[in-house]
Specification:
By secondary structure, the protein is an alpha+beta fold. Helices cover 57% and strands 17% of the residues. The model has no long low-confidence stretch (mean pLDDT 88).
């Protein structure tokens, strides 16, 4: 009987060992499955990164091309506005026997065209009036002269200045009043 019990215990032990060595069914994926899923996510993220990088490179390239074109054609509008002025001057030179009146009239019309071109392109005169306060940001005093007006004011304008938009292109050349 003892022998039978021992056989029974041995059989039960063998069955327990077999169950212990058999894979335990769980809801968790195996390491291989986890690795495969991680590699798939990595491939997706790498693809998305490469697409985003390519898009950023394309945007950068397009922006550089736009800046290059803007520099290249920045004066196009101004040049178009000046073409009629050039045409008028050339036509005036073609006249065989111009009279003083016709020359004066032609120059006045050409000056109107030039002023219109300046206005369209925001090129504004800097023309201080006599007695205006000297502005070193817009005026250049080439001489200081005695005058019956307040010191550091404009006495006379020798040459107009110009601004394009809010930027000084050329200062007005003026003489300034000396202190009394």
């Amino acid at each position: 009987m003892q022998e039978q019990e021992q056989q029974h215990e041995a059989a039960a032990q063998a069955q327990a060992d077999e169950q212990a060595s058999a894979p335990v069914p769980t809801d968790e994926p195996s390491l291989e499955e986890q690795l495969s899923a991680t590699e798939a996510r990595l491939a997706e993220m790498h693809d998305a990164f490469m697409r985003a990088k390519a898009e950023a490179d394309n945007i950068r390239r397009r922006a550089q091309e736009d800046v290059s074109k803007a520099h290249k054609f920045a004066v196009e509008s101004f040049a178009e506005a000046l073409l009629p002025v050039k045409d008028s001057l050339e036509m005036a030179l073609k006249v065989e026997t111009p009279s003083t009146e016709s020359l004066k009239e032609g120059v006045e019309m050409t000056l109107k065209q030039l002023n219109a071109a300046f206005e369209r392109n925001r090129l504004v005169e800097v023309l201080p009036a006599v007695g205006d306060k000297l502005d070193p940001n817009k005026h250049q005093a080439v001489a200081v002269v005695p005058a019956d007006q307040e010191a550091n004011t404009v006495v006379s304008v020798l040459q107009k200045g110009y601004m394009i938009a809010d930027r000084l292109l050329r200062p007005a050349i003026v003489t300034a009043a000396q202190g009394k």
